[in-house]
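This part of the workshop introduces the protein records we will be handling. As an example, a complete record with its sequence and its C-alpha cells follows.
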Amino acid sequence: MGLVLSTGAVVVTATAEEPPARQLAGAQDEPEAQPAEDRAALARTEQLRSEAVEVASDAIEQASAVRAEAEQAAVAPEVLAELDAATAELQAAITQVDVAPLTPTDALPDRERAASRSSVDREESALADEDGGSAATPSPGSSSAPSADPSALPTDPEAADATPTAEPEGPEAAEAAEAADGETTTVPDSGDPATAPLREALDRVTRAADAARASADQKRAEAAAAAAAAQAAADEAARVEAEKAAQRAAWKASLQGFANGRVPDSALCGVGFDSSVRLRCDAAEALEALDAAFTARFGHHLDVTDSYRSYAAQVACRANKGSLCARPGTSNHGMGIAVDVAGDVQSFGTAEHQWMRENAPAYDWTLPEWARAGGSKPEPWHWEYVG
C-alpha cells in the first residue's frame, strides 16, 4: 500500500507539473516566431521588388519600340526628347532598386497590414460572441474552427500555398487582372520606399510613350491623307491626259468632226523647223520627217509659206487671188492637210522640185495631179498629205 501510494504521489506530482512545462515550451517557441515572420515579409518584399523591376524593364523595351516607330513617323523632336528622358529616369530607378538594401523596416507595411487584419478578425469574433453567444464557441465535434492568428500561421512555403486567400477587390483586383494578362504597366504600391521612385518614373514613361504613339499615329494619318490626295491628283491628271491623248489620236486620224476652216488650234500640231506651221497632227509628223530628209540632201529646211487656212483666210485668199484659191469651205488647207512651199521647190524642173516628186510620197506627201505640169491648174508649190 505504501508503495502504491508512493507511486501515485509520483504520478500526481508529474501530472501537476505538466502545464508549467508546456508553458515553458511555448515561451521558448515565442522568440522564434518573430524572426520567421520577418523572413517571410522580407521574402515577400524582395519578390515585389523583382516584379516591379520586371514590369519597368518591359516598359523600357516597349518605349524603345514606340520611339523607333515615332522617329520613323517624323514625330516632333521634343516628344522624342521627353520619351528619352523618361526612359533614362526609369532605368536609373531600376538601378536604385537593384542596389537598395533589404531590411526588416522595408517589410513593415506588410506586417502592419497583417496586424491590422488580425485586429479586425478579433473584433468581428467579439461581435459574433455578443450577438450569438454560442455561435462563436464551436461545440465538440463541430466542423467550425476559430480563426487563427496570423502570427501562428505556418511558415513553410508549401503550407502557405495551401492556405486559401481572399480574392482582391477594387484597384488591387484590377492590377491583379492586368498582371495575369501580362499587360500591366503599373507597379502596385507595396509601401516599400525603394520602389517609390520607380513607380513615378514608370508613370512618366507611360505618359511619354502614349504621347509619342499618339503623335506617330497622327503623323501617319496625315501622311496617308497626303499620299491619298497626291494619288488622287495624279490619277486625275492621268485621266485628263489620257482623254487628251485619245482626242489627239482621234484628231490625228481625222478632223471630220470639224467644218472646213473651223478647226480649233488645239486640234492641230506644229513642226520643229517652223513655228508658224499648223497641220493635222499625223500630217505634221510626216512633214517633219520629210523635212529632215530634205535638209540632209540640200542643207536647208523646206520653206513653208502656208499650212492650215481658216475659213476667213480662205475668203481673203479667194478675194485676192481669185481662182488660184479654192472656194471658201472646200480647200484642203482648211482641214490642215496641205502646205505651200517656196524656194526652188515651187518651180518645175529644179533639182529640189524633182527630189520632192521622187521622195515626198514615201512620207505620204504628194503633188496632186491637177497641180502638176500639164494639170488643170498647175501649182508646183502645193503639196498635200494623203496618209
The longest strand covers residues 274-280. The CA atoms of residues 155 and 161 lie 10 Å apart.
